[in-house]
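Design request, tokens follow.
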């Protein structure tokens, strides 16, 4: 005689919550890590007496520092309109973070540079990133931070643009 178990354990349903915790859903912890650093950076800069900047302003500064200096290129990289970038740049000019200068490669175009105020803020931002990296090492371990740096420093190549079609 075969007996049935008193209860059965069903496989966990694939919910949005456990999907986001899956190792195959890397984008969520990447974004959470970015937010952690950005919020820590903003907290540090405010503690040093700097005015608050929006995330859009912060992202424009990062792009300028890493070499993307044409407003149209910044708009493309950030996935926002050129009008939104120009409006944000105007705010940043008023805050003495950036300035628009003639593009030496294209006399008709302008590019962004950090202003004197932007350079001063950048120096404090560098200190903040060093401090935040040390704090992260304390929280998650030095080896984990080194592994993150190693993984993010590898050339990932261009993002895929071809995917299998559903049948």
């Amino acid at each position: 005689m075969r007996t049935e178990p008193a209860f059965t354990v069903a496989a966990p349903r694939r919910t949005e919550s456990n999907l986001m915790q899956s190792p195959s859903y890397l984008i969520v912890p990447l974004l959470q890590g970015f937010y952690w650093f950005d919020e820590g950076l903003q907290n540090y800069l405010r503690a040093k007496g700097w005015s608050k900047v929006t995330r859009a302003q912060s992202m424009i500064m990062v792009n300028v520092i890493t070499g993307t200096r044409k407003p149209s290129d910044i708009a493309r990289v950030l996935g926002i309109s050129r009008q939104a970038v120009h409006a944000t740049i105007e705010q940043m000019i008023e805050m003495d973070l950036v300035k628009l200068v003639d593009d030496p490669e294209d006399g008709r175009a302008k590019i962004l540079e950090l202003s004197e105020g932007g350079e001063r803020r950048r120096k404090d931002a560098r200190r903040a990133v060093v401090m935040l990296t040390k704090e992260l090492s304390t929280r998650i371990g030095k080896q984990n931070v080194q592994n993150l740096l190693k993984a993010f420093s590898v050339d990932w190549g261009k993002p895929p643009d071809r995917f299998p079609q559903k049948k």
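Comment from the thread starter after seeing the answer: thanks! The first strand starts at residue 98 and ends at 103.
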